[in-house]
Amino acid sequence: MLIHCESFEQFKEITSKDFVLVDFFATWCGPCRMIAPILEELSEDQAFKPNILKVDVDEISKAAMLYNIQSIPSLLLFKDGKLINSSIGYMRKDQIIQFCNK
Q1: Is the peptide bond before 73 cis (omega within 30 degrees of 0)?
Q2: Does residue 29 carry a catalytic annotation?
């Protein structure tokens, strides 16, 4: 499932439960635009376990500041409210899958 985050409260709620891959991005970021269709494809794949939460750093800067996001795209992986993995920069589909399976 792909969710476009609309508020800091929604960010906190979604990342506090389940298995969630958070994509911190900006609309003006080239690598962010390159990774977007990959995340869209993964969100439709039944075998891909985490939900995907897209967070625009320009719109929801409080979430980005909370995790000290200074470069984008940044992917953060949460399980039951705990940050379990993070990565900065563009990744191919196979790299994202491996990142989430660690």
Answers
A1: yes
A2: yes
